[in-house]
Amino acid sequence: IKSSGGASIGIDEMTAKEGCDVMCVVDPDLTLHIEQASAAPCCQNKIKMKFESNVPLYSACDVSLTITGLTETCIQDGQLAISETGHGPDNNVTYLASALPWTNSDGKLVIAVNKDIPANTEIDFEFAMENPATERSAKDVSDVSISVTGLDINIETGDITMGAGDKQPLLVHPARLSVE
């Protein structure tokens, strides 16, 4: 086999990274982690998410991730401003759209990929919301689902993890007043 420069390449030299041989097909997999910054009622909260795919996510393929089940929030339908908070070797690269479509009734967030994301790159982002005044249970991993368009990825519930303790997504403690 000849390279584009005309040099001969043996089969041993064509082994791809991570031990995958030529024409190896990788089973796509994606993981998602969701947590929050505060469980206090009536306060500004940040929902933090991070995801990683073992295959590249190409913007030309119109790849988007849709997360549903983040219901009972105080966020109105519309565009939700997000900020990427670091990833990969270059924290200055922005891979996602800065405003994402949000639907409150089904807690749906559509994450559009604007720049090609290399395989095995963890993408971290967050958005602000206000916690309600009333107590609310945390979301369970079975309440949340994710789908990916532009790739054939079957995501199992085990691929989604949630923060623990007060970092459980959408948990709000009851309001307490102590008088001394």
The end-to-end span amounts to 83 Å
Largest sheet: 5 strands, mixed
Total helical segments = 0
Q: Mean pLDDT score, rounded?
A: 81
Which residues form runs of ≥5 with pLDDT under 50?
A: 1-5, 7-17
| Total E-strand runs | 10
Q: How do the strands line up in the largest sheet?
A: 5-8-2-1-10
Bulk shape: elongated
User: What percent of residues are in strands?
Assistant: 25-35%
Structural class: mainly beta
Q: Helix fraction?
A: under 10%
Rg to the nearest angstrom? 20 Å
Query: What is the helix/strand order?
Result: EEEEEEEEEE
Q: How does this model look, in words?
A:
The protein is mainly beta and 180 residues long. It has no helices and 10 strands. The protein has strands spanning 30-36, 44-53, 64-68, 78-81, 83-86, 99-103, 108-112, 123-130, 145-149, 160-162. The chain has a 5-stranded mixed beta sheet, with no helix packed on it.
